[in-house]
Specification:
It is a single chain. The chain is of the alpha/beta class. The chain contains 17 helices and 15 strands. The strands form 3 sheets. A 6-stranded mixed β-sheet has the order 4-5-6-9-8-7, with helices on both faces. The protein has a 6-stranded parallel β-sheet with strand order 12-11-10-13-14-15, with helices on both faces. Helix 2 packs across helix 3 (80-100), helix 6 crosses helix 7 (170-184) and helix 10 packs parallel to helix 11 (286-306). It is globular, with a radius of gyration of 23 Å. The two termini are 19 Å apart. Bound molecules: adenosine-5'-diphosphate-glucose (ADQ). GO terms for molecular function: alpha,alpha-trehalose-phosphate synthase (UDP-forming) activity; trehalose-phosphatase activity. This is Bifunctional alpha,alpha-trehalose-phosphate synthase (UDP-forming)/trehalose-phosphatase. It comes from Dyadobacter frigoris. In the C-terminal section; belongs to the trehalose phosphatase family. Belongs to the glycosyltransferase 20 family.
Amino acid sequence: MSLTAERKDSFFSKQEKIQWIGYSEQTEEELGGLSIENDSFQVHPVFIPEQVNEDYYEGFCNNLIWPLCHYFPYLARFEDHYFEAYKTANKLFFDKVDQVIQPGDTIWVQDYQLMLLPEMIRQKYPDNKIGFFFHIPFPSYELFRMLPVIWRKAIVDGILGADVVGFHTNDYVENFLKAARLVSGYGNKLHYVHMGNRIVKIDSFPISIDYEKFNGSYDDPEVAEVRDQSRASLMEKIIFSVDRLDYSKGIRHRLHGFTKFLQDYPQWHGKVSFVMVVVPSRDTIEQYQFMKMEIDQTVGRINAAYGDIYWQPIIYQYRSMSYPELVGMYTASDVALITPLRDGMNLVCKEFVASRKDSQGVLILSEMAGAAQELGEALIINPFDINGIAQAIQEAFEMPAQEQTKRMDAMRERIRDYDVFAWTNDFFTQMMMLEQEYERLKQV
Ligand code: ADQ
């Protein structure tokens, strides 16, 4: 990552209309040729036949790449038909790019669902600038090598069709460079990979959020109402967490940590409310259904064991939240408890920090989230260490207001300076300046 003042100028404000290509949940017939367009975007839907999509999205993406990249190899399923569907779906995206692309266009491909697409575009359009961003952790080679050789090679070569390849952290960059070397024999110099007549830059771009939006929402009347009501109706101390239902998010470990806290610090009984919101996700997959059942049971057990008729330690919601509710809870809480077992970045912690215009509140953050590398002022915990979670909650509850402000302000400044717009500009600037930058480095 590198950032200069001029990189913070809005990149998109200088550009022509953005052509957005994405998967459509509706069929072509249902959409009926309806075109989605406004002043800045035009959306081009990609239609994937149902069976292909099941093997592609639920299969290759969610049953193989997701668990492997989040260090759950025992959940990964290696099916030939998954990979066939993955190739087919990437080709359907390519066909849409092929219809829309204009000479001189820059194409930015997002995430692990489309790892073969950069190379497909490169082969037909050698001169267009292509970027690729990977939103989840790129795993250590020992996990990546579990993929069959042909699949690994297709993935590495597919991604390297881009000019600039971005990851959230330097660790993921190093993991990818090692995979590129061991799978396809591509060496690198200062993170530039040589691909015959062209170079590819591999770098870290820690994704961020719209800082001003979250910061500015503090005084929004709807947000203030949620905050006031929560503070009035919940206990003296409020802990908050919100995530998609996913085994990578460490929800069960969080519950065990909270139970340990209740065991070890009984002085807080009757004085703490843990508001835990889980947003439904991928609940057609068996593992997710099982996990949901386990969470429901664990919450029930904790509330039954520790609560009484006046106090429920955990307030658990399985639903989506509106924006005012989300920011209302971020700003009402004393502690945000974020405990993923693995997370590419984790935006919830950045949203919490950006929302805290009052510079109060304590962030407890797992060291396994990419965000931990930027937010060192949080109380950093290991999500597998249940005692550590319990102690961090106690430390957060006892942290003086002044100390909270000091930590919060340092994190807020960092997120404000590299927000999602700076992230975009940084990525595009590196794409545009790729060759000059490489020549300059060669002289040094
Ligand atoms: P996700 O795994 O989806 O993203 P995350 O980065 O935390 O995880 O983003 C979740 C987003 O959904 C946040 O903006 C949050 O506010 C919102 N959200 C979560 N629960 C919600 C609820 N109940 N109601 C409403 N909104 C809710 C993937 C990777 C991450 C990476 C991002 C971006 O897994 O590691 O940070 O992409 O690159």
